[in-house]
Amino acid sequence: MGRSKTAAGRETAKGGRTRGKRSLWRTLRRRVLQLLLVLILLPPVLTIVYSVVPPISTLMLARYVQFLWVDRQWVPLEEISPHLARSVITSEDSGFCSNDGVEWDALQDQVEALSEGERPRGASTITMQTAKNLFLWGERSYIRKALELPLALMLDAILSKERVLEIYLNIAEWGEGIFGAEAAAQAWFGKSAKDLSRVEAARLATALPNPLGRNPARPSAGHRRLAATNLARVRSAGPIFGCVPGN
């Protein structure tokens, strides 16, 4: 009888441990599913909020967390020089006003280049860069690029072209701790973003690929050539600026 009771006790204890493990796994699975649901819903919810509230970028947030200096002065798109908007669109995404947030032909070219062992370049639209700046991290990776696609399509579906451009021009990095067109115009040229000249706008636009290495106020010879090329392309661009106020 004693042995039976002992065996029964062991079975009970074993059953309790099994039920405890199952309960733990159910709880863990539920928490993981809840986290995934939050991660899926958070970007569209934030995008709706960002349709009326000035957002900050993940890079700005990282600097705030590290108690690093941040200069960003939000201004509406109407108070940013159309020269800058046109130069940025020409430099970064000439199809911005007409695409759905992704340049599929350019993306296909880059996928083909990757499959052939070449290093892919470009194919990142203004909307994709805005998605990256709002929701993702800065370091390049294929995972980040894959996440940019649905996020860019979501931004384009929820926000107007004018709002996407307004957000991008207000969160783009233009130097160490310098974010947005107004802060950049003040820092590099001592004037408001609405007063930028064509040349100043071209220098700012062509600094975007390397904002920490290019000085718009004192451009290198290479930077000057890029800005001159940008000016020529803006003049010959044709009707691609339909979503820019004043065009």
Structure write-up:
By secondary structure, the protein is an all-alpha fold. It folds into two domains: 1-50; 51-235, Biosynthetic peptidoglycan transglycosylase-like (Penicillin binding protein transpeptidase fold). It is 62% helix and 2% strand. It is built from ten helices and two strands; from the N terminus they run ααβαααααβααα. It has helices at residues 2-50, 58-65, 82-92, 104-115, 126-135, 142-158, 161-171, 181-189, 198-207, 221-235; strands spanning 71-72, 178-179. It has a two-stranded parallel sheet. Helix 3 runs parallel beside helix 9 and helix 5 packs across helix 6. It starts with a helix and ends in a 12-residue tail after the last helix.
Quaternary organisation: single chain
Q: What is the strand arrangement across the widest sheet? A: 1-2
Structural class: mainly alpha
Number of helices: 10
Helix content: 55-70%
Task: Quote the CATH topology of the largest domain.
Answer: Penicillin binding protein transpeptidase fold
Runs with pLDDT <50, length 5+?
none
- Overall mean pLDDT: 88
The rough form would be described as elongated
| Rg over alpha carbons | 25 Å
- The end-to-end distance, rounded to whole angstroms, is 95 Å
Biggest beta sheet attributes: 2 strands, parallel
- Please give the domain count: 2
| Portion in beta strands | under 5%
The topology string of helices and strands comes to: HHEHHHHHEHHH
